Each structure stands twice: as C-alpha cells, then as structure tokens.
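Whether sequence alone determines local backbone shape is best considered at the level of individual chains. When preparing material for the folding task, we compiled for one chain both its residues and its backbone structure tokens. No coordinates are needed to read the tokens, only the vocabulary itself. For completeness, the protein is quoted in full, as a sequence line and a line of structure tokens:
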Amino acid sequence: MIRIIRPAALGGTLRVMPSKSASHRAVLAAALAPEPCEVAPLQLSADVEATLRCARALGLLADCALEPLSGAQEGFVRARLRGGGIPASPGLREADCGESGSTLRFFMPLALDGRGPVRFIGHGRLMERPQDVYRALFAAMGARWEDGPGSLTLDGRLQGGRMRLRGDVSSQFVTGLLYALPLCAQDSTLTLTTPLESGAYVALTREMLARFGVRSAWRDERTLFVPGGQRYRSPGRVQVEGDWSHAAFYLVAGATAGAPQGVRLTGLLPDSTQGDRAVVQVLRAMGADIRWADSPDGPALCAYPSRLTGTTIDAAQIPDLVPALCVAACAAQGVTRIVNAGRLRIKECDRLAAMREGLCRMGADVRETPDGLTVQGGARLHGAAVDAWNDHRIAMALCVAAASCEGGTALSGAESVRKSAPAFYREYASLGGMTHALDVGE
C-alpha cells in the first residue's frame, strides 16, 4: 500500500497506545497462571495477536475473551484470560509467530514442555534472525532442533541448572528463559558471558513476573538466579502502561514539525522501566523543549518546536529509538553520530540501510558506518518516493520526516505499521497530519 503524506505542523493531545513490550509479557504471564486475569488496555497489533495465538497453540490458554474499550481507551481492548494449560492433542503443535521476534523467543523455552514437538512458523525475515544462543543451550539438554523452510521445530524438556549465554545478541533470550525456568524442578543460574544489551527489557520482564509471584535475583551484574518449582499466580488485573518506543515518533514530530501548541502525550509512566524512556534524555541533549504537564488524563509529556543540534547517540540500549532519532538528527544543526547500532541490521529489515536510503531520497546527508549512521543535519528535506522496507518503525519514522518536507511524499509499504501500531495513521491525522491512501489510478 502507498500512502501520500503532505507537510503539516503537528499539534494536539494523543493517548499513547499500550506498550507492546509490556503487552507481550502480561499476556504470556497470564497464560501461565491458572486463575483469571484481566489485561488492559491492549492494542491488537499483529505482534500481540501472534502472542495470543501462540499461547493457544501451545495449550497454555484455557480461556480468552477480548472486549472493546470505550471512552479515552477507544480502539483498545480488554483481554480476559485464564491460563494453566489444556491437555495437548497428540502429534505436532504449530505456533505461527508472524514476524514477532519477541513471540518466537519468549515461547521457545516454554515449547520444551515434554508434551511433544512444536513447530514455530515465521514470516518475513523472522527465521533469519539469530537463534544460536538457544540452539547451544537446548542441545546440551538433548532437545531436538530441526530447521525447515520458514520454520523451526523443537522437542524435548527444558532442564534447570547452570547456563551460560551471550547477553549482546538479544535480551529476548534472557526473557524467554525467565518465563520458563521457574517452572523447572531445580534452581537455575544464568551467567552472561558478554555485557547485557537492552537490559531495561529484562528489568521489564522481571517486574511483570513479580506481579505474578515469580521471583528471580541478580547475584552480580552478569549472573541471574532463578528458583525452580515456582507457580504463576494471577494478580487479577494488569494495567498496561503506554508505549515509550511509540511515543518517540510523536516527540520527534513535536520537536521537528510541531505546531506552536506542541504535541501532548498522555498514558506514559514517568518512572517506567521501559528503556526507551531515554528518548526524552536524548532529545533534550539535542536541545528539544520537552516538559511534563498536568492534564485531565494524568501526566502529559509535551514536545514543542525546537532548535536542535547534533550529538552522539549510543544506541546499544535503545536500538528501537534509532529510526525516530534519525529524523531528529536530520533537523538538527551539525553532525549526529549514531553508534553501537549494528543489531539493527538483523531486525525486520536492515534498519540502518533503510533509514539512510529513505532520508537520502528526501535530500538528507546520511552515511552508513559498520555499526551506525552519521547524519549531517540542517538540510531542508523535500518530498520523495520512499519505501518502508516492510518495517513498521521505518514507515512511522519516514512519515514523521515527511511532515516537515517541502512537497508530498509517497510511502510504499505503508501497511507495515500493522505489526505494532495499526492505528498509527489515524493517530497521525488526529494531530493534524495530512495523509491518505493512494487510490488506484491516482
């Protein structure tokens, strides 16, 4: 699908969608607890739907009812879940993960439940993403691992004990083990052989697990202790906080293409454990005027048009912010260097190459390095034909960049936002953004 985006000053108030990361974690924990649990609000993005689908496929969810919400939370749903498992049917279970890396890596250890094989199915580039961290651990337990076309089959039983794994590939491997190991009979110790990147996501995992009565503890900065023999207990209700990764696009929009009244975001927790809360610190370091204010719906984070300057951004702990921050870098005076971002080459697409290509088509000066980007900011961008590379974050970032271009932009692959934010274009329009789907023949 192609969308046309025309320049517009963005301003107004928006309730930020529920955190995708917290949603994955809440749904999975609820699926492991035998008592009912209400999880709300949820945004039924393709990734969250994949997690619900896989929880059913593995026989974890005994009941799942989704109810639309109204009022300030219109467009979101309430999930009434009851876990505790249902008997596995004989034979192969199939779990379709869509393009969700979180879903795949969170469920892989849980698939080793001794109840028979599970075939994970992936789409897009999902099955190209590295899984060797698990492969080595599971081989030591005698589990069967079989790669197929767009799929991966596991069979065996997860065993606790002492484990060593890299922490610099993805924190998702640690999260997957943190969900499954408490169900093992014996205690477990996870020793990271490299520094943990995106460590805030592990903190978010441990916070969610604690709500369900599941404990773990850091023995030192690279050693996690996970007691075995634990049981998930529903807290009754989990309220999902706003998504800081998603908020980043609108904060950049407010600072670079904002109307005088600015962009006001509600639904965010100021003290969230989400690592992408760091977007405020990064943008303020570039000179952005970003402030908290009171609102009828709670604290509102406001971003106003600002004069930005270039800086150096270490993306090791905040890789998902890079596409949005590239747009801010183009608007900033001087040079911005984004470093330690090599992992972005193995996401839904090569996000470093995708942002360079799209922004350069718009007239920016962006150059790739092996692990990042160098942006010479300050040039006036112009509308162009750009491509989202089937990546939701690329699509949203280029849409924000198009708001301050001279002339219209044609964005191909615009439908990719469904992966995380199916309401993105409606949100964008509610802030004054000018965008429409291209009609056939237009």
Notes: The chain has a mean pLDDT of 96. The chain has two domains: 2-17+242-437, 20-239. The first strand starts at residue 2 and ends at 6.
